[in-house]
């Protein structure tokens, strides 16, 4: 274990400007250095220095698209670490009442957690698929069951690969629990989480708000979620 590298990563994450930049990428977007400079409220040269350090440390990566260079989180693992830090940061201090998770109601209802759904909607979807025995959670591990293909057909989804393939032959887990820092229960991450999120966006059930991780539920989305989740679960989503 390289303690120096651990300390280096911790120091990078512990600087407010760099933290602000990383959090802007938590919804999976690609942003320019100029956009991230605004997010960090620093000048372009200062932002470039911060970004270079984070790319070098493996927290971000740069993609060239035509004449423009875009930054994004390096991996889902980085997003998972940031989500864990946000969860710890919301723990109440002794004798100090604190609202768990984000105060923004839109973020609590539905938001992006890097590349999958979080908030009350993400939790409701996970609970429904668990109740339907399409997935199973065991601590920090998750798996899809033989019922998954049939259950997911109701959502208009088809399993893209063999979910029972050994993890060593896949780039990421097919299904894993991700602790929701506002709900303190697990929503669905991994390949299945991405599939569900992408499907909901492609179908127009959810729309992304500019400059925010919050997701808005459209009228057609509300109708479909109510039918798929049931009235009681849907009412919990609405708060």
Give the end-to-end Cα distance, rounded to a whole number of Å: 44 Å
H/I helix tally: 11
Structural class: alpha+beta
- Gyration radius, to the nearest Å? 19 Å
Word description of this protein:
- The protein has 239 residues and is of the alpha+beta class.
- The protein folds into two domains: 3-74, Winged helix-like DNA-binding domain superfamily/Winged helix DNA-binding domain (Arc Repressor Mutant, subunit A, Orthogonal Bundle), CATH 1.10.10; 80-238, no CATH class.
- Helices cover 46% and strands 17% of the residues.
- It has helices at 3-13, 16-24, 33-40, 44-56, 76-89, 105-109, 119-131, 148-153, 190-202, 219-229, 231-238, and strands at residues 60-65, 68-73, 111-113, 116-118, 135-138, 141-144, 176-179, 186-189, 206-208, 215-217.
- The strands form five sheets. The protein has a two-stranded antiparallel sheet.
- Residues 95-101 have low confidence and may be disordered.
């Amino acid at each position: 274990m390289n303690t120096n590298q651990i300390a280096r990563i911790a120091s990078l994450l512990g600087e407010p400007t760099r933290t602000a930049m990383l959090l802007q990428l938590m919804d999976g977007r690609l942003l320019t250095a100029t956009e991230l400079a605004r997010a960090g409220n620093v000048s372009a040269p200062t932002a470039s220095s911060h970004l270079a350090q984070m790319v070098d440390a493996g927290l971000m990566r740069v993609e060239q698209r035509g004449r423009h260079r875009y930054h994004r989180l390096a991996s889902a693992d980085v997003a998972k670490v940031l989500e864990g830090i946000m969860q710890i940061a919301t723990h109440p201090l002794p004798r100090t009442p604190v609202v768990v998770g984000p105060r923004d109601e839109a973020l609590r209802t539905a938001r992006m957690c890097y590349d999958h759904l979080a908030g009350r909607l993400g939790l409701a979807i996970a609970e429904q698929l668990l109740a339907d025995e399409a997935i199973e959670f065991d601590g920090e591990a998750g798996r899809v069951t033989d019922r998954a293909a049939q259950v997911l057909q109701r959502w208009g989804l088809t399993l893209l690969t063999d979910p029972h393939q050994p993890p060593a032959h896949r780039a990421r887990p097919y299904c894993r629990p991700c602790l929701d820092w506002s709900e303190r229960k697990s929503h669905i991450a991994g390949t299945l989480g991405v599939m569900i999120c992408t499907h909901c966006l492609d179908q127009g059930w959810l729309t992304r708000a500019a400059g925010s991780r919050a997701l808005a539920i459209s009228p057609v989305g509300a109708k479909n979620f109510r039918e798929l989740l049931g009235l009681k679960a849907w009412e919990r989503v609405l708060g």
